# Entry
Amino acid sequence: MTAARAVRSLAGEVPLAEAADKADFETLVREHQAMVFSIACHFFHNEALAEEVAQEVFLQLYKNLERIESPAHVGFWLRRTTSHRCIDHLRRSSARHEVQLERLPEIPESPEAGDPLLRERLRRLVASLPEKPRMVVLLRFGEDLDAEDIGRVLKMPVRTVWSHLYRGLAMLREKAPRYLKEEAR
Amino acid sequence: MSRLEDELRQALRRREPPAGFAERVMARARAREREQRRPRWLGWRWLAAATAVVVVAAGLHFMEERRRRLEGERAKEQVMLALELTGAKLILAEQRVQQVIGFSLALPN
# Structure
């Protein structure tokens, strides 16, 4: 079975046996590229590296299309593969990409919510977290997944997900400006 | 929900990749497919042919070396035989000379 045939099949367009062209895979890439790229981009806080990782993820999908069971499975598979690839990449080259939290400047006590500078600082803070809390925070707030889904994506127990989430948020609160530490009313 | 969590949601919103991302992925996928389509046995055939050439060359080299060594040993044997023969002839000649000298000394003047 060719890759393109499998893509059309998983998209539910044609039966498995019918021939198809590469446009289907391209459709799949376009449909999920923002999700894959965003996870990698927020994880590394580096666009070039994020694109490299995202491309590798899609090439891996192309190679493993036969294992994809349904259109819904594509999203899950891509999220899981992207998360694991990001963490593996960081472990292999931690010296190059990890931002030390202590070296980041304090976020100014700006009272304006939605300030682009504040958001950029928050993204940098997230990218400075250790790999697992970082990915958990990303999947929770970037992808809006609940703890169970995060556990399935990262292959870890729900308790561990909560532990990483609390740890990540605690580290972020340490550096966050005071007004962000207050509970919303 | 805390304000930090709210700001995190805003900060970590999805982003579109740089323009041409999908095209670049497709180009790499096509290149990879072309690579996979190339018959693998071709590589194995070249490897087998190269191995055969090396084995034959090594065999010929070994046989040539063996032939030279045998020739050398044969030549050495011949030289040794020639030397032995020459030595034996010299001894005979010396004995003859001794006999002739002894005979002439024994003759009355």
Remarks:
- Residues 23-44 of chain A form the longest helix (22 residues).
- Chain A touches chain B at residues 3, 22, 25-26, 29-30, 33-35, 37-38, 41-42, 47, 50-51, 54-55, 58-59, 62-63, 113-114, 118-120, 122-123, 126, 137-138, 141-142, 144, 169, 172-173, 176, 179-184 (CB under 8 Å).
- DSSP finds ten helices and no strands in chain A.
- Chain A has two domains: 3-94, 102-181.
